[in-house]
Amino acid sequence: MSDNGAALLEVEDVHTFYGTIEAVKGISITVHEGEVVTLIGANGAGKSTTLRSIQGINRPKTGRIVFKGQDIVGRRPHEIVKMGISQSPEGRRLFSRMSVRENLEMGAFQRSDKAGIQQDIDRVYELFPRLQERRMQKAGTLSGGEQQMCAIGRALMARPKLLMLDEPSLGLAPILVERIFEIVREINHQGTAILLVEQNALIALAVAKRGYVLETGRVVLHDTAQALRQNEQVRKAYLGEV
Amino acid sequence: MSGRTGALGDAWARLPKRVRALALPVTVLLLVVLYPNYYQDVFNALGGGVTGQLAPTVPTMVVMCVYVIMALGLNVVVGYAGLLDLGYVAFYAAGAYIAGWFATLQFAPHKVHFLSVGVLPVLPGLHVNVWLLLIVGAVFATILGIIIGLPTLRLRGDYLAIVTLGFGEIIPQAVNNGDDWFGHNVTNGPNGLTPIDSLGFGVTIHKTFSFLPSSYRLEINSADYYYWTGVALVLFTLFCCIRLRDSRLGRAWVAIREDEIAAAAMGVPLMRTKTWAYAIGAFFGGAAGCFYAIFKSSTFPQDFSLNISIAVLCMVILGGMGNVWGVCLGGAVLAYLNYQGLEAVGNNLNHYAGTNLNIPQYTFGIFGIIIVAMMLIRPQGLIPTARRKIELEAGVEGGSLYDAAA
């Protein structure tokens, strides 16, 4: 399908249920090494559930999820983190009573290389200088933008091959959204593949290389980001044009 | 500078930092350890007689030690990991019955002695070294904890509480009917197991170190020896709890307590981490049960009612969930009130005010009032942890345990 390198993650015809409700109805997506891929779509389209299925938090009923050549369906979340997938989850979900630094350390829970962890904490502080200023502060007392930075930083601490970001722009001022996405780009340039879930299609398609449009649990459209930006349907539904 | 003034304050400030830091803990420890030596003075200072009853006797202090150990153990489950366990008494029972089985005449005419101390060699029944039994009791409770924990810890919040409540009822019931398990009298049913061998160091050690009694039971001040043993167990428990709190596992517990889904997404293995909390809590519950059974030389199914689980939980809440010092204080205070304090207060009231009240009858009502009052006045507990203080003062943003759909 696409160009650079082997497929890092392949999701094939995954169906995921909450009880009897089918939230994801046969989604197939591919992320290649070093690529930014975005899932866009309205509320309830199944974007977050797709991420949770990949992470192993919700087990798909059928379908295959292949990461680095291994089927990971049925593996526990902590095993999947260890293999190299981490995420900044929907709603950020920071440990609000832990300090910023402790949150970052939690992100490296599966690692035991002390020196490497310290190195990565410094790297996160470099990306987000605000976090360094606030490192001793409890995460629950941070502003929305700082919390988002902390959540992304925490996900980076696992040293993932694939970083999944769930709505990093949610609830942030436009200027902060731009800042966050600049950093997303930078993280990608340092070699991490990114699977980006967004409602803000405009900015997501500006950063991503390819995109999938989800509607009620299905992929309805799939193309390069550039093509999607030109697409009539997408422009009407997600880019706010009339 | 501190608020102290004058020559004394200056002298204090000149002391090395290390000495100043150790001053308080060492003083408290000395006061605690020497209690049997000055109990009589406290009794007299309070005016002896009826008012003197307010001073906790040494046997009461032993019971307080037992409850502090249990409260610290439950604190690992409830305070650290945030798992509500209403059946903690099951582990207490497990420990107690280990002592009952392996240090009594229950299984006579079989006769097995293993490194037993202070037991006549002619005595039938199983008689294993009682110190060893403390460990065996704790380990047995741990295994029971893992067996109960593996299926139940998949549940969340309220559901876990209900299932553990069930197990807390099943164990005493099973023990109560244990005089006829498939035709075998295993637990002696409601009649309980008694007498249980006393703690002691055996004749050989006693000969070399005369301050170590061969058997506590043979000493006039046997309660003192049990008390010192209890204090040693409390110190061991405290040490473990503090080390655990600051460990990687301790951090994982905090993460699970705050947000289970986020913890899983960070790579915390949920089941393993929760089962560890449950097992470690069970370990101390078992040790406390075993020690208590040996102390009172008996164990009965009636000792393991739901009330105990609730009382221990009250101790944790009263003291301040998660804070070991608070939990120690809560355990000591409530155990004191339960075993002596309320009765003493009642006697004083009846004696001086001429009333005719049976205060111990209202024990759990009074506990209830204490808890409700605490929730209103100081919900974070007597000595709260910094984390919980923040939670209660500032509120917590984001996901709790219950809103996750998974």
**Shape by Cα distribution of chain B:** globular
Q: Uncertain regions of chain A: pLDDT < 50 for 5+ in a row?
A: none
CATH architecture of the domain at 58-306 in chain B: Orthogonal Bundle
Q: What's the tally of helices of chain B?
A: 17
Query: Which structural category fits the helices and strands of chain A?
Result: alpha/beta
Count of separate DSSP helical elements of chain A: 10
What's the gist of this structure?
Chain A is α/β, with parallel strands linked by helices and 242 residues long.
Fill in the keyword field for this structure.
heterodimer, A: 242 residues, alpha/beta, 4-stranded antiparallel beta sheet, 10 helices, 38% helix, globular, B: 406 residues, mainly alpha, ABC transporter involved in vitamin B12 uptake, BtuC, 3-stranded mixed beta sheet, 17 helices, 3 strands
Task: Give an overview in words.
- The complex is a heterodimer of chains A (242) and B (406).
- Chain A has a six-stranded mixed β-sheet with strand order 6-7-8-3-9-10, with helices on both faces.
- Chain A is an alpha/beta fold.
- In chain A, strand 7, helix 7 and strand 8 form a beta-alpha-beta unit.
- Chain A is globular and about 45 Å long.
- Chain A starts with 6 loop residues before the first strand and ends with a helix.
- Chain A contains ten helices and ten strands.
- Chain B has 406 residues and is mainly α.
- Chain B has a domain of 249 residues: ABC transporter involved in vitamin B12 uptake, BtuC, CATH 1.10.3470.
- A three-stranded mixed β-sheet of chain B has the order 1-3-2.
- In chain B, helix 6 packs antiparallel against helix 7 and helix 11 crosses helix 13.
- At the A-B interface, helix 2 and helix 3 of A face helix 11, helix 12 and helix 17 of B.
